[in-house]
Write a structure and sequence with these properties.
OB fold (Dihydrolipoamide Acetyltransferase, E2P), 8-stranded mixed β-sheet, 539 residues, alpha+beta, 4 domains, 18 strands
């Protein structure tokens, strides 16, 4: 979900430049046929719909991906807006307040992205629900309509004509409209249906449902409605005499009554922008040939400059020479180094991985990665490394900028030097998890465990907190979020350093809010007992 939100957010930002350009052209091209404005709004729709674009040297979009899709895993998160003054002011703030900390169990940027994606999804559901409810209420309102001719219904319960429906659009007209006014109203509404405006308006709202958080998308949706109406007016009056145009405008004014219920339904196509449309009708003249040519060239220019992305700039990465063997790897997540062998101390260990801290002479290679998780799936690590051991890792030269960092592909893990004993192992753990060794035991301890996927407790993350003086008082959300997760084996070692009875240690499962994996349908009490048994009886 987070990845989808970041993608949508980036598409929204890049499309904003196109929307701004169209809004400016809307004022510049006042004398151009309004159908060209609809073409420009169609380009906006394509930009918002397509997850991929063409790269061009002529692109005026500053950045193809202002927010890196790996930002929530980066050791030094930053944005790449393509505007130097923005980057220079925003990135230092992000680095200071949102960069991951070694003493924290979660990355602050992960919290922000997770919360933002949840809010976005709630907004999408609310917008969709609003459309459905308003459509349903309007449908009930016109249920008693009488069909006077094909797809035309008279209704006592409405005050303004409109088109309702997408696949089978129907024209609804107030019962009080008749004569020349009715004829002109039907001309207008049928022109809408012929131009497929009811489909374009619905598509516009569907895009607004997804991009509701962008104010420019709201502006685009409102202006789209007005431009569609004016383009439809032009289509109707193009071949009319002046007297017929006057009658048409009078019909327009006759329909300019309260239409709040129609406007409230995004799937109903009612009249909007009456004042602006009246001025446009009064001033309408068939455009000169040169104006049409300029309008066509403007649409082409907007497509070239704002429908494309700058070449080689995507994701804010610099040009890195990647070998053919890496062509199928998403390079946006990795840094590339010349060395393919790294040495470090083991500071944590799980069932299928270890976490190492690079030795001092390796830090120049790793930029800001101070801890690296080494997974050995399909490998048989030499001598089975333990906490405190010094190991050498052979890998493919790629390092994932997450926290902890990860190698792209690991070829081998070998032990260079064994820890001298249990004391050195504990000293190494104490170095990276010091707060777990300094807890008071007067009121007891609680081992919390959580998961980011799977129900095997041996692969859970574990944290430790001292109990409250008042047994009825639980640990706060902040206390739990500040826990630094470690492996089962490491937590067993930590707990062994305390002189405390088994009965004074509680084991509790915690549903980490950053985890998308829920233990629904699981017997939590049984899992807690299994964990206790593993700690004290090795079962």
């Amino acid at each position: 979900m987070n990845g989808v939100f970041i993608k949508i957010f980036n598409m929204s930002l890049t499309a904003s430049w196109l929307i701004a350009a169209v809004v400016i052209l809307r004022f510049v091209m006042k004398k151009a046929p309004k159908r060209f404005m609809c073409v420009l709004w169609a380009l906006v729709a394509v930009r918002l719909l397509c997850p991929f674009t063409i790269e061009s040297e002529l692109s005026l979009v500053p950045s193809a991906e202002p927010i890196p899709k790996s930002i929530e895993y980066e050791v030094e998160p930053e944005v790449h807006t393509g505007i130097a003054i923005v980057n220079d002011n925003v990135n230092p703030v992000i680095a200071e307040h949102l960069a991951p900390r070694t003493e924290a169990s979660v990355n602050p940027m992960q919290i922000i992205v997770s919360v933002a994606s949840s809010i976005w999804l709630l907004g999408v559901l609310a917008m969709a629900a609003y459309a459905f409810v308003s459509w349903f209420r309007l449908k009930r309102r016109v249920a008693a309509s009488i069909e006077t001719e094909k797809n035309v219904y008279l209704c006592d319960g409405i005050e303004s004509p409109f088109v309702l429906g997408v696949i089978r659009p129907v024209i609804y007209v107030p019962s009080g409209i008749n004569g020349q006014t009715l004829e002109n109203v039907l001309l207008h509404e049928r022109a809408h249906i012929k131009r497929k405006d009811h489909i374009w308006k619905t598509l516009g709202y569907a895009l607004l449902v997804v991009y509701w958080f962008n104010p420019l998308c709201w502006a685009a949706y409102i202006l789209l409605g007005r431009d569609i109406e004016m383009a439809c007016d032009e289509k109707v009056i193009r071949d009319m005499e002046r007297t017929e145009v006057a009658d048409y405008m009078q019909a327009l004014l006759d329909c300019a009554v309260s239409r709040r219920r129609i406007a409230a339904c995004p799937l109903a196509f009612g009249e909007v922008g009456i004042k602006e449309r009246a001025k446009s009708i009064l001033n309408y003249k068939k455009p000169a040939f040169w104006i049409v040519i300029v309008a066509v060239l403007s649409c082409i220019a907007v497509g070239i400059f704002f429908m494309t992305d700058p070449p080689g700039e995507k994701n804010g990465t610099d040009d890195t020479d990647i070998s053919d063997s890496d062509a199928n790897v998403d390079s946006d997540y990795y840094i590339y180094v010349e060395k393919s062998r790294l040495e470090g101390k083991v500071v944590d260990k799980g069932t299928d991985y270890i976490v190492i801290e690079p030795l001092p002479h390796e830090t120049d290679v790793l930029k800001s990665a101070d801890r690296i998780a080494v997974y050995w799936k399909n490998l048989k690590p030499d001598l089975n490394p333990e906490i405190g051991d010094t190991v050498a890792v052979e890998y493919d030269g790629r390092i994932l900028e997450s926290y902890p960092a990860r190698f792209g592909e690991t070829y081998s893990v070998s032990v260079m030097e064994r820890a001298s004993g249990e004391d050195e192992k504990i000293a190494q753990i104490r170095k990276s998890l010091s707060k777990y060794f300094e807890l008071p035991t007067d009121t007891g301890l609680t081992v919390y465990f959580w998961t980011f996927g799977g129900s095997d407790y041996k692969n859970f993350y574990y944290g430790l907190l001292c109990d409250k003086d008042d047994p009825s008082t639980s640990h706060s959300f902040q206390e739990k979020m500040e826990m630094k997760g470690t492996s089962l084996e490491t937590m067993i070692t930590i707990l062994s350093t305390y002189n405390i009875s088994e009965n004074d240690v509680a084991f509790k499962f915690w549903q980490n809010p950053l985890s998308s994996y829920g233990m629904f349908g699981e017997d939590i009490s049984a899992i807690e007992e299994k964990v206790r048994a593993e700690f004290y009886h090795g079962e």
